[in-house]
Amino acid sequence: MPVSHDLYQDLHYPREIVQQRRQQDPQLDRLLDEYIDIDNQVLAAEAISAGIASDDDLHRLKERRLSVKYMIERRLEHKA
């Protein structure tokens, strides 16, 4: 069964800090929403047992998710 990534553990920031910063930074808020959306797409694609989503599509989604995570990290570090 597919499992969502723990973004807060990956970021090495407590959830409370990220949420506080999210309220103060519209760009960070948008990036976090985008990450959640892509993560949900990855989970849905992984859950499809009929193979509707191709491996290439899944790989592209994972690359996008990682790219957004890096943008979130940079945003958090920039505003620290």
Alpha-carbon Rg, integer: 14 Å
> What's the total helix number?
4
Number of self-contained structural domains:
1
- The percent range for strand residues is under 5%
How far is the N terminus from the C terminus?
Answer: 36 Å
Silhouette: elongated
Helix content: over 70%
Mean pLDDT: 88
**Low-confidence stretches at least 5 residues in length (pLDDT < 50)?**
none
Quick one: biggest sheet?
none
Number of strands: 0
The ordered string of helix (H) and strand (E) elements is HHHH
Q: Assign the structural class, choosing from mainly alpha, mainly beta, alpha/beta, alpha+beta, or little secondary structure.
A: mainly alpha
Organism: Pseudomonas reidholzensis
Protein name: DUF465 domain-containing protein
InterPro entries: DUF465_sf
Describe the structure.
This protein has 80 residues and is mainly alpha-helical. It has one domain (7-78). The protein has 4 helices and no strands. The protein has helices spanning 7-11, 15-24, 26-47, 55-78. Helix 2 (15-24) packs across helix 3 (26-47) and helix 3 packs antiparallel against helix 4. The termini are far apart. The mean pLDDT is 88. This is DUF465 domain-containing protein. It comes from Pseudomonas reidholzensis.
Task: Briefly characterize the structure.
With 80 residues, this protein is mostly helical. The chain has helices at 7-11, 15-24, 26-47, 55-78. The model has no long low-confidence stretch (mean pLDDT 88).
